[in-house]
């Protein structure tokens, strides 16, 4: 009898704890207070946003001799002329850090200045965390180090292993600024950036942090990486002489994605915390959804059910109705299979309301940044919510279907409250969706 009473008491305590936690989470809103970007269409959030709306394209020909024998000879490259990028990619830095880590530090510096967040007391540092990842390591570093090993053991750099660890960008940011909150890294292929933001959102929601520096970085363009993706038949090969036309999401002539490089970092913050310090607020993260396709190593489920689950769970987490969504920033990478399946998923999930949703993918401008794609495009979705302008899909001449695509030129976003979904899907069938709204 006493065991039964004891069990009931424990159950009641558990129910009370769950109720308290649910109430606590519902009271903690998460907003965006800082942005930083390094991309093929510029460095600096304002420059990049302006270039995106002007229709600039950062996809260029790869000039080095080793690329000439490959089916794909184009990529979205960052400009090495920018002073901050030049300093970040110095020989001294590259000795101990991967190029992607260096770019992450550039984007982080801009985001923190933008957010005006430089904590000094222990409490503030302990409640500031980092969630940042990358999709791939630098394969050239591995190859070069292997050649060095052939010469002799002592030729292998002691920084080799730290350089190729996917979590080291997050680690370097935490070390540089003294952040002692969650130090977290995600590596989920092309969904890395979105998962990083979503996990950071939950850390704040659950009270693990008040401020999170989050996003992703990628810098892995090399002959070996291009060759590997070509062997998967994943890259565009029909526009080597017209690189600016190669990435064409949702267009009938699309023939594969174009690799890109860069970094984008967001500062997320608990709403009341941001208000107390009079921080600038760009938008609010309302919800986060995840799913797995459980189907194929590279191709999504043909019925779009994985994407539907991810979007549906983001809506559920945000506690909003489907008809409140009026923009989807699509993952669409310009592949023959993936774009059509994402379109199918949008139609199935939203039904008749899909005709009232604007859809665009900005990858026509900057290519596919792999682990830094979802976070860069989340920045664009946030700015769209703030400014009421939807960025266009470049090179969209003959759409795959009748969805309301924003093609080639920006479109005004006219609605009572701007609420969007941002999709990111990765190899292995990993899916993430963020629900982002005007504040």
Automatic annotation (TrEMBL):
The protein's annotated catalytic reaction(s) are: tetradecanoyl-[ACP] + malonyl-[ACP] + H(+) = 3-oxohexadecanoyl-[ACP] + holo-[ACP] + CO2; hexanoyl-[ACP] + malonyl-[ACP] + H(+) = 3-oxooctanoyl-[ACP] + holo-[ACP] + CO2; decanoyl-[ACP] + malonyl-[ACP] + H(+) = 3-oxododecanoyl-[ACP] + holo-[ACP] + CO2; octanoyl-[ACP] + malonyl-[ACP] + H(+) = 3-oxodecanoyl-[ACP] + holo-[ACP] + CO2
- Gene3D superfamilies with a match to the protein in the record: 3.40.47.10
Task: Name it.
Answer: 3-oxoacyl-[acyl-carrier-protein] synthase
Give the record's family classification.
Belongs to the thiolase-like superfamily. Beta-ketoacyl-ACP synthases family.
Q: Which residues form the active site?
A: 190
Q: Which NCBIfam families match?
A: fabF, PRK07314.1
One GO molecular function term of this record is: 3-oxoacyl-[acyl-carrier-protein] synthase activity
**In the UniProt record, does the keyword Lipid metabolism occur?**
yes
Organism of origin is Papilio xuthus
Name its GO BP terms in alphabetical order: fatty acid biosynthetic process
**Pathway the protein contributes to:** Lipid metabolism; fatty acid biosynthesis
Known function? May play a role in the biosynthesis of lipoic acid as well as longer chain fatty acids required for optimal mitochondrial function.
List each copy of the Ketosynthase family 3 (KS3) domain by range.
27-438
